[in-house]
């Protein structure tokens, strides 16, 4: 049975995200370790970290994962922003490590006014610098597949393999596969044949064993739109079949999967995370 979780808010304390995950019936949880739209971060205390770990143990929630700040751009040709992004990612890894979180999911970056090739080189160099400054830290970066809006890199599997190949410590990196992003980027997954072709492409470039986490999101926008808009499972342009194929793929049965679908309650007053998790569990073949 796959491990299912969701992204949860840390408002009121890190442990609150764990409690919310438990209430929704999750096995794992994703969170931000700081405000994702600010560079600065309030100092993370030992007491906060200990309470977070204790709540995970108490409620049986495993595989906590963090997502980095949306401000970070390791692909930027602007030296000031690039250095600021490196410093910020170092802090993200330090905070995750203190919380006992093994992975920090990061969008690779956008090349803005430079070129795709230059952006890939820039991201790899940035990761080399991050790794140099975080020697001895257990937490690792997971490069996320992106939808490819604007000059964002990571929407082709080749972008990710190019970045990984150019880093000095590729064993300190992994990949987070976002279903909505991969679909919006143009990789079809509706039929079994299409799904297998997409995973074959992933394996040929990155290697499927590099995938350490999944983001499970349907897409509001059509295949190949390169627009990142998440929808509830089975209610977007993807439909249920891609999720059925993924959830019954034995290669990924031990890889944790996290919802990033819209929050709120359904017309019946049910928490949307609960509804989406039930839909996903219903797709698993006995």
From TrEMBL:
Q: Which PROSITE patterns match?
A: AP_NUCLEASE_F2_1, AP_NUCLEASE_F2_2, AP_NUCLEASE_F2_3, AP_NUCLEASE_F2_4
Question: PANTHER family from the xrefs?
Answer: APURINIC-APYRIMIDINIC ENDONUCLEASE (PTHR21445:SF0), ENDONUCLEASE IV ENDODEOXYRIBONUCLEASE IV (PTHR21445)
UniProt-annotated binding residues for Zn(2+) 1: 67, 107, 144
Family membership noted in the UniProt record:
Belongs to the AP endonuclease 2 family.
Q: Which organism is it from?
A: Aeoliella mucimassa
| EC number of the protein | 3.1.21.2
Determine the domain of life of the protein's source. Bacteria
CDD domains reported in the protein's UniProt record: AP2Ec
Molecular function GO terms recorded: deoxyribonuclease IV (phage-T4-induced) activity; DNA binding; DNA-(apurinic or apyrimidinic site) endonuclease activity; phosphoric diester hydrolase activity; zinc ion binding
Reaction catalysis annotation:
Endonucleolytic cleavage to 5'-phosphooligonucleotide end-products
Question: Which cofactors does this gene product need?
Answer: Zn(2+)
Q: What is this protein called?
A: Probable endonuclease 4
* Family matches, as InterPro entries: AP_endonuc_2, AP_endonuc_F2_Zn_BS, Xyl_isomerase-like_sf, Xyl_isomerase-like_TIM-brl
Comment on bound cofactor: Binds 3 Zn(2+) ions.
Please name the gene that encodes this protein.
nfo
Residues reported in the UniProt entry to bind Zn(2+) 2: 144, 178, 215, 260
Entry-linked NCBIfam families: nfo
- Tell me a GO biological process for this protein: base-excision repair
Physiological role: Endonuclease IV plays a role in DNA repair. It cleaves phosphodiester bonds at apurinic or apyrimidinic (AP) sites, generating a 3'-hydroxyl group and a 5'-terminal sugar phosphate.
A Pfam match: AP_endonuc_2
Keywords in UniProt for this one?
Answer: DNA damage, DNA repair, Endonuclease, Hydrolase, Metal-binding, Nuclease, Zinc
**Ranges for domain Xylose isomerase-like TIM barrel:** 18-271
Q: Which residues bind Zn(2+) 3?
A: 181, 228, 230
């Amino acid at each position: 049975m796959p491990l299912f979780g969701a992204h949860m808010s840390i408002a009121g304390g890190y442990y609150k995200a764990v409690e919310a995950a438990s209430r929704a019936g999750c096995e794992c949880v994703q969170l931000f370790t700081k405000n994702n739209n600010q560079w600065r971060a309030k100092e993370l205390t030992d007491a906060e970290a200990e309470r977070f770990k204790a709540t995970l143990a108490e409620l049986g929630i495993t595989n906590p994962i963090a997502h980095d700040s949306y401000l970070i751009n390791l692909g930027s040709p602007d030296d000031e922003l690039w250095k600021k992004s490196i410093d910020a990612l170092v802090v993200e890894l330090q905070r995750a490590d203190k919380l006992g979180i093994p992975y920090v999911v990061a969008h690779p970056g956008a090349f803005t006014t430079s070129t795709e090739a230059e952006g890939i080189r820039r991201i790899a160099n940035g990761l080399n610098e991050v790794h140099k400054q975080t020697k001895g830290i257990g937490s690792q970066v997971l490069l996320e597949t992106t939808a490819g809006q604007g000059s964002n890199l990571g929407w082709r599997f080749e972008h990710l393999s190019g970045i990984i190949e150019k880093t000095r410590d590729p064993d300190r990196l992994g990949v987070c596969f976002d279903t909505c992003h991969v679909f919006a980027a143009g990789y079809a997954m509706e039929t079994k044949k299409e799904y297998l072709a997409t995973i074959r492409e992933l394996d040929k470039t990155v290697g499927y064993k590099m995938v350490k986490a999944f983001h499970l999101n349907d897409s509001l926008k059509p295949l190949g739109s390169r627009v990142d808009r998440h929808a509830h499972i089975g209610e977007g342009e993807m439909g249920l079949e891609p999720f059925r194929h993924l959830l019954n793929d034995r290669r990924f049965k031990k890889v944790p999967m996290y919802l990033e679908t819209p929050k709120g309650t359904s017309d019946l007053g049910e928490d949307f995370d609960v509804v989406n998790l039930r839909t996903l569990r219903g797709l698993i073949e006995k």
